[in-house]
Each structure stands twice: as C-alpha cells, then as structure tokens.
Amino acid sequence: MSSRLFATALALFFMMAPAVAQERPEGPPTGRITIEQINIAFIGSAALGGGTLTYQGQDYPISVSGLGVGGFGASRLTASGDIYGLRSAGDLAGVYTQIRTGWALGASGSGTMWLTNNRVTMKLHAHRRGLQLTLGADGVVIAFK
Fold this sequence. Notes:
The chain is mainly beta. Helices cover about 10% and strands about 70% of the residues.
C-alpha cells in the first residue's frame, strides 16, 4: 500500500512540477491578496481558511481550501502578495496548483509561495507558525464568500 501512495505522490508532483518552474509574470500586478489558513498534514494534507482580494480599490472576502499529498504536523499560515493576470475580480475564483516545501517550528517558518492556474498567478510572501514539515503538492480552491 505504501508503494501505491508513493507512486501517487510522485505522479502528482510531476503533474504539478510546472508550478515550481514558474516564470516571472509579465506586466504590473493587477491586485493584492491576503490569506490566513490552518494546515494539517499526516501524509495527506488539508487546509482551510480565508482572506481578502483587493482589486481596483475594492475588498472582496474569499475562502481558501485545499487538499494535497505530503507532510506531517500542523501550522497556521499567513500570506500576502501580488496577483497577476486579473481582468476582473471574478477571475480569482478557481483551482490553483502549488508545490510546497518547507517547515515550521514555533514562529520560524517563512518563504515565498507561487499559486497558479491558467489565467492568474500569485506571488505570496508566507509566514508559517506551528510544528510542520512539508514536501508535496496541493490543489487549492479559492472562492468568493
């Protein structure tokens, strides 16, 4: 059974590998986002939270959830950053891929995260608190509240 899990995780990693090789988006940012999320992982991972999209001077509340493969522990994530490729606020809603590696020990975990789908790219500066070791891939769903 563990070989099946490993094969599934490896396949998911290679399917999502283009997210790691994210090219720098062209043009200026088209919006800003803040996210707060709770992550729990024990081989599989789950995340649930929310945040705010700021687009053309207006704030929109959003929900953020995800499922993935890889990791162990629990942490709280806060992230904020620029969004590229928005033509309207509604363009943000959808499924994004994320490859994640990192750790959190107390208040020590931080780094840069890229979330991408076909139209929109986000470059987020993230800070993680808790006790967690991560190496894996996620599908992240962003929706409006």
